[in-house]
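Hi everyone, sorry if this is the wrong subforum. Our group has a chain we'd like a structural model of before ordering constructs, and none of us has done structure prediction before. Sequence below.
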Amino acid sequence: MLALIRSGTPPEEIALVCPRVERYRAPLETALGSLGVPYAIEGRIRFDQTEFGRALLSLLRFAWQGGGRGMLYGFLRSPYSGLSRASVDWIEGRLRGRAVETGERTEEETMRLRDGHPLPPLELLRKAQTPLAALRDLSRFMLRAAHGLESPPVGEESRQDLRAFEALTRLVDELEGWLALGGSLTPDEIVAAVERVSVRAAGAGEAGRVDVVDLLRARTRRYEVVFVLGLEEGTLPRRGETSPFLDEETARELDSRLRRSRLAKPDAVARDRYLFYTACTRATRRLYLVREAANDEGGPREASPFWDEVRDLFSEDEVRRTTTRRPLSALTWPVEQAPTERERLRAVASLAALDEGASRSLAQANGWERRLDRALRAFERPTRLTHPLVLEELRAKTSFGVTELETFADCSSIWFVDRLIGPRTIDQVVDPRLRGQVAHSALHKFFAGVPKRLGVEKLGPEQLDDALEFVRECLAEAMAGVRMELTDLQRRELEQGLLRDLEAFLRDEAASELQLVPRRFEVSFGSERSAQELQRGLDLGTFTLSGKIDRIDLDPFSARGIVQDYKSGKTAHSA
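Answer:
Right subforum, don't worry. Here is the predicted structure as tokens:
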């Protein structure tokens, strides 16, 4: 198609005919957009498929239907909010880091982070006299915020916004007419009506654009070149929808018995064959038939019977000569067929593996020498660390954390990513790290308070009932210290799961025959915050270890002791 346009064929004289436009909309937008081919998709689209519609519905669902943070910030991130994207992202990052989800808390925290300033779109919705007036005012505000008042909107995205605005204005006029007749409308009903609005897409036949039409609309058009897509079994002819109450065979039988019965549907295959034939006759110069031989996973797809019927009209030699295949394994185009400069550069880099001399000649002819060298060096890039500053920094490091070495022993790549790159998620979630923090805090409170609360230093079977009651109190105190905002369900799941694990842990402690007494908790070593005698860490000769000991149990009558390391979900490394 790109070659046709470059050779002089006007884009408006080219058509892409699809069995169903909606099914092909996303891949066609991606493919044609990446190649820079101007196109116009015939038909209507849902209001929420436009950027204007998605933003407006997000705000309505937040304000009128109790939506959460995602709904509000789905609008605020759009160009229709009138707020800078950087400030919106900064505020949302703070809310996501604290797991703020509910609408009330989202608005409260947003205003606090904006120094008490309210959000203008929400104020506009709430100050309007009626919901319909609020909807009309909001739509005008959004257009002004996105496109301003100084110059008229230009470009396809701006025209799409105007078409969405016009469709919404017509809906508001109709609903106001309904109210004038004595009807009633709730905000939920208005939102439902907005969701059902359809917007006219860019019309086919526009100068300078390739038309994308379905089989039905293609009947009344004429083009120089036509591409018919979807010639796979199950796509064309299209699978008909059967009634769950009356199958086609029974419907035909009833039609044969009853004179005026029209229960059976027309033959769908015959109708699609007629539409396919009509689409093929729309081309005055050239016709392309396109089908998938395999799906995205590589599984074979059978050809449509219409494809086979057309092939049977020509000799095998003609079919073989005019058929072009592009396998899934073809990651690059042949150099002479590459449609864009980027694809030509990729093809030249791929050619270097077979003929480096030809590849470098082509690169020199196009001024791509540096870009080709950079692409080829990616296959020869050494991974050994050689920079003196990096080596000096690593050589100077003599103290390593226990957890760090455990991670390195399990997988050095995970250690590198976690410890040196250090990626972090924005959203705060209930993960094993949070569970461990709460469990450690609860156990610290429990064992530190056992002597005073239970009157013993070593937990035994006779103190188990009182100990279980006490650990529930310690867990409640630890849960109260969680700064993340949890839903009721999340809080119950976390608390009940931890309580079950802690109770099992205490039953094992009470049944233990060791006469060691818990003495010290959360003992850090190898850091500046450690006790003076432990700041050096554990010296192992060529390096030292640092870390934190969860608990140390001691024998009251000797120098014996044991280090306890709490583990959740896995067995501790032997030591």
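For your construct planning: Residues 571-575 have pLDDT under 50 and may be disordered. DSSP finds 23 helices and twelve strands in the chain.
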